[in-house]
Amino acid sequence: MVVRDNSLLTLSEEKVLNLLLDKINKLVKRDDIAKALWGNLWLEKYSDYMIDKVIYLLRKKLVAPYKISTFRNRGIIFSQSWTIPFKIIRSTPTIKSEGTHPHEEYLKYMNDTTNIRKTLSDLFKSIKKENITKYFDSSLKDIKELMILVINSYSHDNVDTISSWLSNNKIGARIIFSHFDDRAIKIHQKRIFELGIEHIETIYDDIRKTRLTPSSFDLVINDFRLNFNSNHEQNQEAMYGIRRILKLNGLVLISVVVDSRYESSRYGVDQEKAPINKSSPHIFMFKENLERYCFTVPYYKKLFTKSGFKIVKEFDVKEGKTWFNKEKFIPNREPTYRRFLLQ
């Protein structure tokens, strides 16, 4: 039910409401409202007064949790009110975290529109290619509105990517981009405002010392962010934090760069004979000149299972072993990566 039982809608209100229902959680421009009201004659009949009046009357007839938010000189967004599962003040930054902290060169690189590295875009392409969505269907199909947490994203186009992915797959969701770096928070807030998206939020939080409410999220996305941790203890804290805030039967999509020193037949086809090098991570660097840390495949698998997760699917292995070759790393020393679906 969207409007009160005893509320009769006028024809104009019904036209606008139908438009808003089709574009729920999206910015609707005043011109679009005018077209809904007056059709082909909208330019001739256009009236800001009439548009404001219809919106005002419609807003009074809505029932919770539905609401209409006005964005001055831009339009309106029709959405469901939502209680954020935080016990903290959103504007409170966390204490500076241990591990790698990106410099300005890295931030510039990750937000360069010509950059070929599209982190979440590549992830969702892999999800489609390797049919990972079937696991979503079995675990999350009965949830009307998913709660999704994206950890430590530094790229503004991840906002576009996840919003498009949800829209294309007709998935209802609320998304939180969490970060302990206020520069990243501002990058994402700016992009969210530019797109006029209301179902995406940002919050200061370090997953290793998370203050998010336990059992709040259906899906957590951690795309290469473990590689910003410089030691095993930080990785443990991150995985325990994820487990703490994940709902029962919730899923985790996690991507990691793995130690390239053991990519040879001496250590098996897939590093199965490689050591669990929790005390000696490998340091790698990409074009943006930022040092990060990676461990062996057996290490990550043991980290996940010891943290209380089941490895549902390991994927993108072939692509992960060849992708970095394209960037002309030193032979036999190029980083490789892989992705995991955990539960």
TrEMBL record:
Q: Entry's Pfam families?
A: Trans_reg_C
Any GO BP annotation: regulation of DNA-templated transcription
Database matches in SUPFAM superfamilies: C-terminal effector domain of the bipartite response regulators, S-adenosyl-L-methionine-dependent methyltransferases
Q: Which InterPro entries does UniProt cross-reference here?
A: OmpR/PhoB-type_DNA-bd, SAM-dependent_MTases_sf, Sig_transdc_resp-reg_C-effctor, WH-like_DNA-bd_sf
Question: What GO MF terms are annotated?
Answer: DNA binding
Q: Where is the OmpR/PhoB-type domain?
A: 5-78
UniProt keyword list = DNA-binding
This protein's record includes keyword Endoplasmic reticulum:
no
- The protein depicted here goes by the name OmpR/PhoB-type domain-containing protein
